[in-house]
Amino acid sequence: MLKLYGGKFSRASIVQWGLEELQVPYEFVLLDLQVGEHLESDYTAINPIGKVPAIVDGDFTLWESGAILLYLAEKYGQADTTEQRAEMAQWVMFANATLGPELLNEVTRDREMIRLLKPIDQILERQPYLLGEQFSTADVAIGSTLGFFQMRFQMDFSTFPAVMVYLKHLSERPAFQTTMGSRG
To answer: What is the DSSP string of 75-124?
Structure first.
C-alpha cells in the first residue's frame, strides 16, 4: 500500500486530496514536525531534503507535492495523451512556482492577483474545471493553492466571480471535505 508522509497542517493534505479523488488506498504516516521527525534519518532516507510530503509506493519514493500529484495522475490514468499530461503539469507547476509565491509576496500581491486570476476567471466562466468538463489533478493544485490563501489569509477573490463559484464547488467535494476542509 502507498504510504504518504506528512505533518499536521502540511502540504501533505494536497496529496491526500488527490489520493482521495483518485480513490487510491494509502496509509498516512504522520510526522511530528515540531519535534523534528522529518529530519531524522529514517525519513531523510525517503526525502533527503527533510520536507513533507513524500510517498513510498512499493520500491518507489517521491517527494514534492506537485511531482507526487503528477505521478498519481499518470499512474491512475487521469490523462490519456501527452498533451493532456503536459496541460495538467502546466497547472500544477503554475500553482507551485508562480501562483503561490506571487500571492505570498505582499509587495506585488494586488497587482499580480489581478494579472494571474483574471485569465483563470475567464477560463472558469466557460467551463467548470481548468481542463474542461472533468475534475482533474490541475484542480487539486490550483484549488488547494487558492483555498489555502482564502482560509489562511482571508484573501478576497470576490472580484473573480467564476473563481469564487469554482472554489465553492471544490470545497463541496467529499474528498476535499475529508482532507482540506478539516484544515480550517
So the answer is: HTTS--SHHHHHHHHHHHHIIIIIIHHHHH-TTTHHHHHHHHHHHHHHHH
